[in-house]
Write a structure and sequence with these properties.
16% helix; 413 residues; 9-stranded parallel β-sheet; 6-stranded mixed β-sheet; alpha/beta; globular
């Protein structure tokens, strides 16, 4: 059980408090199962489909949500501001995907009550903010969730469920809106399933939306000769380089540059795979770079099911998948001609180079990525990250530094 069946008297929220309801996305005990991606972000900041989980909730609710996460992430991902702490709060499991039916249940949830589905806490209603909120140790009344729920439980589900999530986000984002015109230089199949945001440029390319929608974000660019088969999302300020070959379901997050061949993968954002090379059935975090002609295997030679390294459990874990490629944590980088084996996992801020296949697990702050590799010095890692941020017009904040320092002290080599 994930909760205690303690009973306490419930009282209805007042109308005044309904008007000032706070929604807070919390990390539950499953957070560690989503490493390496939750090493450096709350679960709700994972991109699944076109949007992050947090963005999905905010679009459905029509307001901003706060975070409730582990201590070393709080500076970058803060919870409620001081003026809102006395308002009523709905704590929502950050791994849960929103639906209209679920939101209806949340808005009718009584105070001091946990909404539960199959022993998993979906949400908790409280009369005020709790700085020490822990859904697994507090006593709440229990309300059973009567609607179907999708949750993100494992890192490979990010790409495995990406087609469904792209379609749902596409429907949400484009509802009652009209796409910008598709330039006549393109060859288009099923244009009714294509949406181009204002400021985007798409020229001399093939857009095939017969297998799923194609979404091109604000100020994004699809360069000449690109071939896209949906479902596909290119988020704001990102670019497909000339001649890129994209098989859906694939998502390229914001401020990224991508070339070569990609199949059923998710790039969170601010990352580059700007040259030729294959990326398949993979998830790439933020601030990553794959050097020219970097490739990953996504299928074992014996066609068997893929196992990956579970960072939290420190053991191999079956995925149940025949196709599984590279899972790369934030700030990791691969040199030119890097060859990743099937089901490779890299931690946070690993710098990968040298010949041959690197190991299937590359720890955080690995310098070289090979067995017995030395540690990437913290000061130099921060120096690189600061330069990378500056190139995008961003500042490397104290919150970013705290994440680097914590993970450096707590990573394994």
């Amino acid at each position: 059980m994930f909760y205690k069946l303690f009973k306490s008297k419930s009282t209805k929220f007042t109308n005044k408090k309904y008007a000032t309801m706070n929604y807070i996305l919390f990390d539950d005990n499953n957070r560690a199962q989503l490493f390496p991606f939750t090493l450096s972000r709350p679960v709700c900041e994972i991109r699944a489909g076109i949007l992050t989980l947090k963005q999905k909730w905010e679009k459905h609710l029509g307001l901003q949500c706060a975070y409730h996460t582990v201590g070393y992430l709080e500076s970058k991902y803060p919870s409620l501001s001081q003026e809102n702490i006395d308002n009523t709060c709905i704590y929502i499991n950050g791994a849960v995907f929103p639906t209209e039916e679920l939101i209806y249940q949340l808005k009718n949830l009584q105070p001091n009550t946990a909404l539960v589905k199959d022993d998993k806490i979906i949400a908790v209603a409280c009369n005020s903010y709790h700085t020490t909120f822990n859904p697994n140790s507090h006593g709440f009344d229990i309300s059973q969730c009567f609607t179907s729920i999708q949750t993100l439980e494992k890192p490979w589900e990010i790409f495995a469920l990406n087609g469904k999530n792209i379609q749902e986000d596409y429907d949400l984002i484009t509802k009652n809106r009209i796409s910008a015109a598709i330039d006549a230089s393109n060859q288009v199949i099923h244009p009714e399933n294509i949406f181009i945001e204002e400021g985007a440029t798409v020229l001399c390319s093939i857009l095939n939306a017969s297998t799923g929608p194609i979404y091109i974000g604000k100020d994004a660019e699809v360069m000449e000769g690109s071939m896209i088969r949906g479902p596909f999302a290119l988020c704001e300020h990102s670019a497909l380089k000339m001649g890129a070959k994209i098989y859906g379901p694939t998502t390229i997050g914001p401020h990224s540059k991508v070339g070569g061949e990609i199949n059923n993968s998710v790039i969170f954002g601010y990352s580059n795979k700007a040259h030729d090379g294959f990326l398949g059935n993979s998830v790439i975090g933020e601030w990553c770079n794959l050097g020219a002609d970097t490739n990953n295997s996504n299928l074992k030679n014996n066609y068997g099911q893929v196992k990956i390294w579970n960072i939290s459990a420190k053991d191999w874990q079956a995925t149940g998948l025949q196709f599984c490629g590279l899972l790369m944590g934030d700030h990791s980088k691969a040199g030119i001609n890097t060859m990743f084996n099937t089901g490779t996992v890299t931690g946070f801020c690993a710098n990968i180079f040298d010949g041959g296949f690197p190991p299937k697990y590359i720890p955080s702050f690995s310098w070289g990525g090979h067995k017995n590799a030395p540690k990437f010095e913290l000061e130099k890692a921060i120096e690189v990250a600061t330069k990378v941020f500056e190139r995008r017009g961003l500042n490397f904040t104290n919150g970013d530094k705290e994440i680097f320092e914590h993970l450096y002290l707590n990573c394994e080599l």
